[in-house]
Backbone:
């Protein structure tokens, strides 16, 4: 979990193309700023965004309030993300692990492990044990269905 005074890793804002690579394990301490606000970027250089409703995608060129997520400590080295609609980011097991911002509380489907990648950037592992990916061929929707990490960056 979060420990005051423990420094967090900082990453370049704009990192190159996605690579499937092994995550760098950091002893269960989140690499994201707990209780801080972040903006995530996919490997297509677009921003992760909350669309009207609860859909979360990676298809926005500009930042606005819809691209800001608050990072919360979910215990045991996991984090929860709260979107600009006030809802928690969750995965839907009945929709191939589709990522949405529709949770009213931090239940099991709203807990993620964020891992630092050795080459920079982060990967996000969902409660189903799968990594989150941006399905660019489907409009950039986020799905938690990969066995290996996909790179994201944050600022």
Residues:
């Amino acid at each position: 979990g979060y420990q005051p005074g423990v420094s967090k890793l900082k990453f370049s804002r704009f990192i190159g193309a996605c690579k499937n690579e092994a995550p760098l394990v950091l002893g269960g301490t989140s690499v994201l700023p707990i209780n801080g606000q972040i903006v995530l970027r996919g490997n297509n250089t677009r921003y992760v965004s909350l669309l009207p409703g609860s859909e979360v995608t990676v298809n926005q060129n500009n930042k606005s309030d819809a691209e800001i997520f608050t990072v919360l400590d979910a215990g045991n080295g996991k984090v929860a993300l709260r979107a600009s609609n006030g809802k928690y980011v969750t995965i839907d097991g009945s929709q191939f692990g589709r990522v949405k911002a529709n949770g009213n509380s931090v239940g099991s489907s709203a807990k993620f492990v964020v891992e630092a990648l050795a080459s920079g950037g982060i990967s996000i592992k969902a409660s189903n044990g799968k990594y989150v990916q941006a399905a660019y061929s489907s409009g950039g929707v986020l799905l938690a269905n990969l066995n290996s990490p996909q790179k994201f960056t944050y600022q």
In short: The radius of gyration is 14 Å.
